[in-house]
Amino acid sequence: MQRIYLDHAATSPVHPDVAAGMVHWMTEQFGNPSSIHYFGRQSRRALDEARATIARSLGAKETEIVFTSGGTEADNLAIIGTATANRSRGRHVVTTAIEHHAVLRACEYLERQGFDVTYLPVDEQGLVSVDDVKAVLRDETILVSIMFANNEIGTIQPVREIGALLRDHPAYFHTDAVQAYGLIPIDVNEYGIDLLSLSGHKINGPKGSGALYVRETVKITPLLFGGEQERKRRAGTENVPGMIGLAQAAEIVERTRDEKRRQYAAWREAMLDVFRSSGIDYTVNGSPDGLPHILNVAFPGTNVESLLVNLDLAGIAASSGSACTAGSIDPSHVLVAMCGKESDRIRSSVRFSFGLGNTKEQIERAAEETVNIVKRLTDR
Q1: Which residues are catalytic?
Q2: What is the per-residue pLDDT across 162-203, written as a single tens digit (0 to 9) for each?
Q3: Can you tell me where the transmembrane regions are (predicted)?
């Protein structure tokens, strides 16, 4: 059986060039970048070059990039680190109801520490209102954290408009760009972003690699204590091979971004064409102008667990939403925020996401198998 992987929003395969480039830094040039001898200096130089690559991709300074173990750590450092360092100015944080759990759980932690967190609602497409952001801002608001694009439905938030709004407010602006980075050109200065999280394994880089952009004017408290790595913002010996892999993956997605966007949009339309021609009942969740590689679809009359099991038996890997909630019996918090707790969509929605290694033929076959499964399930 040929298996088809359509869960790239959960994780993506490492690009062969990235994997090849990392091997050298695991087997030959393995020095600790904090060591002053030759081996250490070689690793330090490579780490500095990787940092410069990530900085250029965001329009940032090299000194504003903090390497982390991934998106979750970057989100935690941005939210808890910034709130803790600036609590003397206020204890109010603003976010949305559809953030990744790395953001939501960090905000819940802050609430237990005495902070006040406002969770903004979204509309039926998963969009937050800029007016709603403006309405909840207070003098004591120190941080606004709103994701760039949602990992479950692909909806892109009005980040530029929110950044413009906050230019006249002392609150810092953080965005979780884990899904958007590599598909949307991002200049942190143009968008008015003060902190930005990204992750390597979403862009065909290695797991365990990520980064947090921290504007030089942002005061932040570290979460890890030990050595003085990352300008005292993140202790611990740096994952040199991982960060080199992250930077190589970033360079590749920068070169291929436009081509990939066109390709993913075409695959998305090819899948929808099969659904339309089959006559099955379905609803697309999210904004039609969202990330092109994510297609979240509800099939009325079906159950998501049955759908995913049958898809897997047919050799197709898809998901019901964030991989970080695997094993949870709770419905998607994103779909609940969009549609309400009583909506059938929260129990019948599947996320397909495209990426490296996929072909149009695979997409069409997956769509046809999905149609067959939906028809079989709704005939019962």
Answers
A1: 324
A2: 999 999 999 999 999 999 999 999 999 999 999 999 999 999
A3: none
